[in-house]
Design brief:
- It is built from six helices and 14 strands.
- It is an alpha+beta fold.
């Protein structure tokens, strides 16, 4: 399938038109950013790993009845997806205190939460993707309350599926960010990607970080972490 005109370029992906009116081709890049674009760099073969990792996760979710934008993997860097209108609300699901949650609430990083936490963030790079609540989202007409409830329920379902499956691979799902979109038919589906760029993965035995925190915190062995996640979910 041939790529047409590029319609969008983000920090980690390019999106192209294609022969199908109902689909886009997504190309995964090696570019890496952190702290809302303040830190920039490149991770060797990151796009290849994220494409493959997202493919596995979308397949897992499909097996459990979760509807996503994923259609097919076209090449080592390219994925065919349904055309959707992205809902400008990022849904973050947290099982363990880490990152901004730990610093914001004074929690010890690595502390398991008493219950899973779901947070909403406004998808706006210029504003730094601020934390918002249901009322903000409704007042800004980002989504209806019913749609927000659907996003939260779906995020928790996805969390249960991925948490248990990753546990069998010796990986702790600490937290992760999801984005959703609306198809031409009005169906809300999971969109974007699920990868070490958008999730925190720790080794269950050692708590070694196997995600983009290695880039954020200059821990080294960033490519190896992405490669390790792909190896575990494909082969173990």
């Amino acid at each position: 399938m041939q790529k047409g005109q590029m319609v969008y370029e983000g920090k980690a992906k390019r999106v192209y038109e294609c022969e199908r009116d109902d689909a886009y081709i997504v190309e995964f890049k090696d570019d890496a950013t952190a702290f809302n674009g303040q830190k920039k760099g490149s991770i060797t073969k990151k796009g290849v790993y994220n494409n493959a990792i997202s493919t596995v996760f979308f397949d897992w979710l499909k097996q459990e009845g979760i509807v996503t934008h994923y259609i097919d993997t076209l090449s080592e860097r390219e994925m065919l997806v349904k055309r959707v209108r992205i809902i400008p609300v990022e849904v973050v699901t947290r099982n363990v205190a880490a990152g901004t949650l730990a610093s914001r609430l004074g929690l010890i990083e690595g502390e398991k939460l008493k219950q899973t936490v779901v947070e909403f963030y406004l998808k706006n790079d210029e504003l730094g993707d601020p934390l918002i609540n249901h009322s903000h989202a409704v007042a800004l007409e980002l989504a209806t309350r019913e749609e927000l409830d659907h996003l939260e329920r779906t995020a928790l379902m996805i969390n249960d599926i991925l948490y248990e499956r990753l546990h069998t691979k010796g990986v702790l799902l600490v937290d992760f960010k999801l984005e959703f979109g609306v198809t031409a038919e009005g169906e809300i589906v999971l969109a974007d990607e699920i990868s070490p760029d958008t999730c925190r993965f720790w080794d269950e035995q050692t708590n070694e970080k196997l995600d983009k925190d290695r880039f954020r915190r200059d821990l080294g062995r960033v490519e190896e972490a992405y490669q390790e996640i792909l190896h575990r979910i494909q082969n173990k």
